[in-house]
Design goal:
There is one protein chain. The protein is of the alpha+beta class. Among the domains are: 119 residues, Jelly Rolls, CATH 2.60.120.10; 59 residues, Orthogonal Bundle (Arc Repressor Mutant, subunit A). Helices cover 45% and strands 20% of the residues. The strands form 2 sheets. It has a 6-stranded antiparallel β-sheet with strand order 1-3-4-11-6-9, sandwiched between helices. Strands 2-5-10-7-8 form a 5-stranded antiparallel β-sheet, with no helix packed on it.
């Protein structure tokens, strides 16, 4: 997993410790017994607001970490681990919804049979900005609950989004990376807030409706900037109301979220652009110019919308092949 983003491999635990220390993570690692030491593997894909770290070690090991300014959600993909937070052990198994480590808390993890884990790291400043935009009010504390305490369906969708992001990063065309990272980061952050935030859970279920003028500004912005990433902060800034109000309106009026509405616009623009192209790489270029996070995502969405894969018309294919 994340094989396109290797960080290091080593059988020397002292070397592993030193590597984490250099990166500002005070790791305390303890090996059980005198068994032959296995290889410690770490791959990492970094982005400004969301990073993914895949680590693997096949022997028993305990690891401790100091507090940081990020939240972490760990998903086991092999065996079972125990995450210790404030003296309380939380079991994290391969079929469970993950374990959340809040910011500003030291933590440790015990792996009696080794581990393979996909660790999501989110910046708390970015989450606070999105929470304020979503609810229309400043929030000092994130107050995130454990995924196991959330709606099972929502926690499962969050887990799927994280793993899909990791898989897409492995095979992504580098030209699509900025859009892929922006799109996936926004989706994951919103899922974390809507599924795990106590503030969102306690907020009123029917936010006040924005005016027609405010909504018109949002729709005009989406159409005019269809190739750009869309964030909840932008929705709140353009409309002048909370992100939840905008989401509620789009669901009632269009039967979809603003992001799904944006994808409809992108598909229409791509559908309009295809007949005028004569380049063999036109399909990928159109997907890129229309703001899709990957060619595969564009092809799936196009087929679902128009019943066929995006291809050049026969005349254009003939011109491109000459």
């Amino acid at each position: 997993m994340l094989q396109s983003y290797p960080l290091f491999r080593s059988r020397n635990i002292d070397e592993v410790k030193a590597h984490f220390l250099v990166r500002g993570q005070d790791s305390r690692m303890e090996l059980a017994g005198r068994r032959r030491r296995g290889e410690f593997v770490a791959n990492v894909a970094r982005a400004p607001d969301a990073s993914l770290l895949y680590t693997r070690y096949d022997n028993p090991i305990t690891m401790g970490f100091d507090a940081s300014c990020h939240i972490h959600i760990g998903y086991q993909v092999y065996e079972v681990s125990q995450v210790v937070l404030e003296g309380k052990a939380i079991e994290n198994g391969i079929h469970q919804s993950g374990c959340l480590v809040p910011d500003q808390l030291p933590w440790s993890v015990q792996n009696p049979k080794g581990f393979q884990v996909l660790l999501l790291r989110l910046g708390t400043d970015a989450l606070r900005r999105k929470l304020a935009a979503l609810l229309g009010a400043e929030r000092r504390a994130l107050d995130l609950r454990q995924p196991a305490m959330a709606d099972p369906g929502g926690a499962a969708r969050l887990r799927a989004s994280v793993f899909d992001f990791a898989q897409e990063l492995d095979v992504a065309d580098r030209r699509f990376l900025p859009q892929l990272i922006a799109t996936a980061t926004e989706e994951i952050c919103l899922r974390v807030l809507t599924e795990l935030s106590e503030h969102v859970a306690d907020a009123e279920r029917a936010p006040a409706a924005p005016s027609a003028l405010q909504l018109g500004h949002v729709e005009q912005y989406i159409v005019a900037n269809f190739a750009e990433p869309l964030t909840v902060e932008t929705l709140a800034e353009i409309s002048g109301v909370s992100g939840r109000s905008v989401f509620s309106h789009f669901l009632s009026r269009y039967g979809c979220t603003p992001h799904a509405y944006l994808e409809r616009i992108r598909l229409d623009m791509a559908h309009f652009s295809l007949p005028g192209c004569a380049d063999q790489n036109a399909v990928a270029l159109i997907a890129l110019r229309c703001g899709f996070p990957s060619l595969a995502h564009f092809e799936r969405a196009y087929r679902d919308r128009f019943g066929e894969l995006p291809t050049l018309p026969p005349a254009a294919r003939y011109r491109a092949g000459r």
